[in-house]
Amino acid sequence: MPTKLFLNTGIPACLWFLSNDKANGGRNRRKEILFIDARNMGTLINRRNRELTNDDIELISSTYHNWKTENANYADIAGFCKSTNVDAVKALDYVLTPGRYIGLPDDEDDFNFEERVTTLTAELQSQMEEANLLDERIKANLLKVRVKI
Known about the structure:
- The protein is built from 4 helices and 4 strands, in the order E-E-E-H-E-H-H-H.
- It has a two-stranded antiparallel sheet with strand order 1-4.
- The protein is elongated.
- It starts with about 30 loop residues before the first strand and ends in a 5-residue tail after the last helix.
- By secondary structure, it is mainly α.
- The longest helix has about 30 residues, at about 115-145.
- The chain folds into 2 domains: about 1-105, 3-Layer(aba) Sandwich (Rossmann fold); about 110-149.
């Protein structure tokens, strides 16, 4: 859950739902765990509190119900949810932090590292040249008011 969702804590929270009857709802979920990472959801209603929108609640709820129900439309979504088995959790020393399992969201745009570095380098060079020009202007103006630098 996102930060600032609960009045008594400003940190993200994990909610755990445990069930003895793993087949309740139509699908046998023995040795399976659903991780949902909702820490980036919700909107700030003031600087100290956040609330989940109806769309956020619907997405979380439908994801859980689709996972739980047999023949439903559940699918892992990178950066949001992942169904994994107990063996995968055991391999990570039983750490139950959702981010360890769900991964990062799929990048929708094609990120070209070399192109990005070239663009940023050119932008930095331009800013450094502008900074040098501004330094020269400042020095010239200070000389006009007879301040030694």
